[in-house]
Amino acid sequence: MAARVRVECPIVTVRLGVLVLPERPGPDGVRVWRHVEDLGVRHAWTYDHLRWGSLPDHPWFDAMTTLAAAAAVTDRIELGTLVASPNIRHPVSTAAQAMTLDQLSGGRFVLGIGSGADGPDATLLGGPRLAPRQRADRFAEFVTLADATLRGRPVTTQGRYYAADGVHLVPGCVRAPRVPFAIAATGRRGMRLAAEYGEFWVTIGAPGVATVDEAFRALADQLARLDAACTEVGRPRASLRTLVNLSRIVPDPYTTPCRLRELLARCGDLGFTDAVVAYPRPAGVFAGDLAAFERALATTAG
What we know:
By secondary structure, the protein is α/β, with parallel strands linked by helices. Helix content is 38%, strand content 15%.
């Protein structure tokens, strides 16, 4: 009988998290968030849309309310938006929700913010469809006003897209000076915002790449541009956590435990500190086998 060959999976230093779509009603949604924490991951996130293009007619719930429920049934993991969208949110009311979630979770909330894609919810509130430069301008206003509001000082300002008149959030955030920001960006202006205001930088890679190797080359290029943004603002890049959504990079990140560990090790070699994989759905986008997902995370998370 041939001897079994022991396969050594690579050592992983990247912090692993899970993305949970806000689609499950009632007790089933609560059960999933408990399950995610029981898997031993470091953080868990949900998308923020009114309507998501991949599931246009599917049940879809509010991100902040979903995370309030998650905060109530978990004790350890960080929880966050991946990412909150200026398409449907105002920075002051978003800051108030972030402060509330930070208090409910005992200081475990991370406010993920993106520029708001030109997708299905870009005009649902009746506003005009913005050009890329306009979205970048709006994003900068959103980040800076949310930052000022969450620092606990009275804020009065008038911008092109947003205004505040004597806003003062009490009691403020558990984590000082405010909840951490996870800023999703791939362009120069967005990366500079991440370098200036972010505790995380977030990416889903580059759209349209054909192979895993091409995807990782695109990630390496993005990290090089992030390095340049950090240098520009005088910040050590090592002080910024970097997070990649692996389920947007490769279609099958957890088919085996070694597969997931190899991908995470590759992310770590590039310089990523954190990664997420999507909680498996029975069909369609992010479809996967729950048992394989649990086996992979059992040997990887922690």
